[in-house]
Write a structure and sequence with these properties.
Blueprint (H helix, E strand, L loop, with lengths): L1 E4 L6 H16 L4 E5 L18 H12 L3 E2 L2 H17 L2
Parallel strand pairs: 1-2, 2-3
Helix pairs in contact: 1-2
Length: 92
C-alpha cells in the first residue's frame, strides 16, 4: 500500500488520518510504502509548496519501518522537495 504525505491542500488532520489508516493496514499485515509530495517541474503542481511531514508523523513512520511494517523514500523526498522549491524561487 502506497501513501503520499504533504500533498497541496492537506491539513494536519488529513495527515493524522493517513497515518492511522496506514498503521491499521500494517497491523493487518500490509507493508506500507511512504512517500513525500514533490512539486516537480512540468506538472500541474510545479508551483506548489514543498511536501512536508510533521515530526510526530515522521517518528511514527520510523517506528513502523523499524518493525518491518513500512519502507519508502520519504526522507530523501523531504529534502528533494525543499531543494526543488529553492531552485524554483532562485530563478525568479
Amino acid at each position: 500500500m502506497v501513501f503520499l504525505y504533504g500533498l497541496p491542500g492537506e491539513t494536519p488532520d488529513d495527515d493524522k488520518l493517513t497515518l492511522a489508516y496506514s498503521q491499521t493496514l500494517a497491523e493487518l499485515g500490509a507493508r506500507v510504502n511512504n512517500h513525500t509530495f514533490l512539486p516537480l517541474p512540468g506538472t500541474p503542481f510545479r508551483n506548489s509548496p514543498a511536501g512536508d511531514i510533521d515530526m510526530k508523523t515522521q517518528r511514527e513512520i520510523v517506528l513502523m519501518e523499524s518493525d518491518g511494517k513500512a519502507f519508502g523514500k520519504w526522507k530523501g523526498q523531504l529534502a528533494r522537495a525543499k531543494e526543488l522549491v529553492h531552485l524554483r524561487e532562485s530563478k525568479k
